Amino acid sequence: MATVSNREAAYDDDEYAGVGWLIFAASMLGLVGILAIIDGIVGLSKSKFYAANATYVFSDLRTWAWFTLIVGVLAIIAAMGVFTGSGFARWFGMIGAGIVAIEQFASMQAYPFWSLTIFACCLLVIYGLARYGGKRMDMD
Asked: Domain extents for the chain?
């Protein structure tokens, strides 16, 4: 029976400490991307779903719907990249989550609770990728 020293056990724990955060970050980034795509499609097809007489930062609802749709697609691409474990995907995921957070914060007047929920998820994604994204996700 082989004995494992405390130093080796600590190394194994450090190696796999962030895998849960990375899986969470990639999953939430994908979920936020899917919800942003749905949000964009709803904004393009049925504008009465949103608050009446809402004013947007740059333009009208259709412009924000296209922007939300594009950001959602980028978030899904970033989530797939984070699942592969590449370093570029880590930065792309943090930037994508940051853009989604800013976009949700800017469109908060339509649905405030929903926007704050997605905003908080994006902050957790950024934390998970910034803290543990440097390690590869090996789920063997």
From this structure: 28-48+55-132
Residue corresponding to tokens 């594009």: 70
Q: Are 92 and 52 in contact (CB under 8 A)?
A: no
Task: Note the pTM of the prediction, 2 decimals.
Answer: 0.75
User: 68, 48, 49, 50: which is closest to 58 by C-alpha?
Assistant: 68
Structure tokens at 14: 């450090």
**What distance in Å separates the CA atoms of residue 77 and residue 73, rounded to the nearest whole number?**
6
Q: Which two tokens stand for residue 135?
A: 């390690």
25, two tokens: 């970050």
Rounded to whole angstroms, the Cα distance separating 101 from 120 reads 8
pLDDT digits (tens, 9 = 90+) for 16-34: 777 888 888 899 999 989 9
Closest CA to 60 of 14, 118, 68, 80: 68
On the CB side of 136, CA atoms within 13 Å amount to: 5
